[in-house]
Amino acid sequence: MSSVLEINDLHVEFRLDADTVKPVNGVSLSVEAGETLAVVGESGSGKTATALSILRLHPTPPCHYTGGEILAGGRDLLKLPEREMRAIRGNEIAMVFQDPMTSLNPLKSVGAQIAESLRLHQGLSRSQARAQAVQALREVGIPNPEQRAGEYPHQFSGGMRQRVMIAIALACRPKVLIADEPTTALDVTVQAQIMELLAGLQERFGMAIVLITHDLGVVARCADRVLVMYGGRPVELAAVDEVFAAPRMPYTRALLRSMPRSDVPGGAPLDPIPGSPPNLFSPPGGCAFHPRCALALPECSSTVPPLTERAPGHSAACLLEGSL
Amino acid sequence: MIGFIVKRVGHTLLVLFCVATVAFFIVRLAGDPVQQMLPPEATIEQERALRASLGFDRPLLDQYVSYMTGLLGLDFGQSVFFHRPAFEVIMERLPLTIDLAVAAMAFTLIVSIPAGIVAAVRRGSATDTSVMASVLVGQSTPAFWVGILLILIFAVNLQWLPASGTGSPAHLVLPAITLGLYSAAMIARLLRSSLIDVLGEDYIRTARAKGLSGFKAVTAHGLRNASLPVVTVVGLEVGSLLGGAILTEQVFSWPGIGRLTVEAITYRDYPLMQATVLFLAAVFVIVNLVVDLSYALLDPRVRLS
Ligand SMILES: Nc1ncnc2c1ncn2[C@@H]1O[C@H](COP(=O)(O)OP(=O)(O)O)[C@@H](O)[C@H]1O
Ligand SMILES: [Mg+2]
């Protein structure tokens, strides 16, 4: 099967007054229809920056897309004029954000906020869009959708608001859904329900999901493949079982030990990674992880290892050969 | 919501009661009207007779009680200078002040809303910088000076517009600009900063992620949210335009409430002073009440709580 979204060697910079930050340094990934790619990494590793770049939602300036390509539907999104890009946002590629409490407009009814993209992309009339919005609320499991469509965000709980965000994102049946930590801001009990909902909707509509998450339990349950990011670079990409069973990059192994797993009762004791993530204003030379890496070799401070395939479907960016 | 309205109306009445009381005592610091009205050669007897006929010889508390009881029936007392009910005198001048306030508010909004939006959306650009520079000038220039400058340029030198008086829409132009300039500057600045805050909100990003253009995201999702703090200030400005036109009305000889207030003070016309002060206060608190209620219209979180 061919990918519905493919990113090759994406580079993004923020040119601030005094400094230049490079939150995305050569990210490559691809997803196929019906597949879920999990993106994991510590805070500040460039996950959100990558996600926003796909829809070109960064303010420009200060943001500049300095290299690479983002292919979807046979086009390079980085080359499209803004007008054509707008036809893709919310239509072919949609996004769900981290914080449902602030991502909805408090002054508009949720029905109107869903109807907005239907009117925009599908040219529906006001009343058609309203009816369709009610249907969208029903699909994401909001009880009594006819009535709730007329209500405002503050009348919904956090979990219900995230369902509304999902309804907005999926209203036009996008081919790709980017979900940036969709459950991080929610109660633990609600998190599982939201992930179940996403999985169910994916089965129904067949969209690809790029799932940014902090929760390895979610990764284990929902993802097909995993991309690990560090300091704006992709450092390991493999099928989910491979990543858990045989990580090939020391950072991945350290990350797996440091992150909670909601699917393991009681959870394994967490083992935080020593040191702190790289400062993107002055990243360390060589492999960005070497200052924190227990297995670092002298060459690690001078050579940036490229992401190379080590086994079928399993790539890693590390000077060490073989699995750890 | 009903409870909210009842509470706010009650609060408004309480404020008006306090203002009436303060006004009653404070106008008596302006000096003795009887001395002012009499020629210097008047006798003690003549003075006493006039004082008695105006009721100013009665004990203060007595005067206060009859003044407050009068207010309940919308009786603001007799103007000493005009020999007519103070309320009537105010109502006669009110239309002129309303004309001026409406014209000034129209000027304010027409200038400040586009300026505020453009400055916020093009933040940091040359346009933004020039808007903010104009705002600084507009906010720091006193009204009487602007008025005189406008008269010099447009009435004396260019002779495009009348320098003073009333009678035609052309007469309104210069006073309206003079009066509205400060509000326009303030509202442009406020709208700009409020809009900049709103444009950084997550829901604007959501709107853009839906495929809305930057412009549509601002108009459909930004403006109403940004207008919440602005509405308060516009309301207060309406209050001060109706009441605060004292300098402008003086400069342009515009015979509205502002000039009437000055006249009342000059003549030490206690009842008229009390009435104008109370009138201005009433305008302020009523406008405030309307602003509070309009919040409920704009914001469902207030309306539905
Ligand atoms: N608008 C921006 N301006 C400047 N720096 C930014 C901006 N957005 C993100 N960054 C920087 O890019 C880096 C990556 O951030 P982000 O993609 O949000 O990380 P993650 O989502 O993985 O936690 C961070 O160091 C952050 O400071
Ligand atoms: Mg993030």
UniProtKB/TrEMBL annotation, chain A:
What PROSITE patterns is this protein classified in?
A: ABC_TRANSPORTER_1, ABC_TRANSPORTER_2
Q: Which GO terms describe its biological process?
A: peptide transport
Domain (ABC transporter): give its ranges.
5-256
As for subcellular location, the record says: Cell membrane
Q: What is its main location?
A: membrane
Locate the coiled-coil region(s) and give their ranges.
Answer: none
**CDD domains, alphabetized:** ABC_NikE_OppD_transporters
User: Which domain of life, per UniProt?
Assistant: Bacteria
Query: What GO terms are given for molecular function?
Result: ATP binding; ATP hydrolysis activity
What is the membrane topology here? Peripheral membrane protein
- What InterPro entries is this protein classified in? AAA+_ATPase (IPR003593), ABC_Ni/Peptide_Import (IPR050388), ABC_transporter-like_ATP-bd (IPR003439), ABC_transporter-like_CS (IPR017871), Oligopep_ABC_C (IPR013563), P-loop_NTPase (IPR027417)
Query: Does the keyword Membrane belong to this entry?
Result: yes
One GO CC annotation, please? plasma membrane
Q: Which UniProt keywords apply?
A: ATP-binding, Cell membrane, Membrane, Nucleotide-binding, Transport
What family is reported? Belongs to the ABC transporter superfamily.
Task: Write the protein's name.
Answer: Oligopeptide transport system ATP-binding protein
Task: Give the organism the record lists.
Answer: Nonomuraea fuscirosea
UniProtKB/TrEMBL annotation, chain B:
GO CC terms in record: plasma membrane
Q: How does it sit in the membrane?
A: Multi-pass membrane protein
Looking at the keywords, is Thylakoid present? no
**Cellular compartments annotated:** Cell membrane
Biological processes annotated in GO = transmembrane transport
Q: Which UniProt keywords apply?
A: Cell membrane, Membrane, Transmembrane, Transmembrane helix, Transport
Give the matching SUPFAM superfamilies: MetI-like
Where mainly located?
A: membrane
InterPro entries the UniProt entry points to: BPD_transp_1_N, MetI-like, MetI-like_sf
Domain called ABC transmembrane type-1: residue spans: 94-291
Residue intervals passing through the bilayer: 12-31, 100-121, 142-160, 172-191, 277-298
Family affiliation = Belongs to the binding-protein-dependent transport system permease family.
Q: What is this protein called?
A: Peptide/nickel transport system permease protein
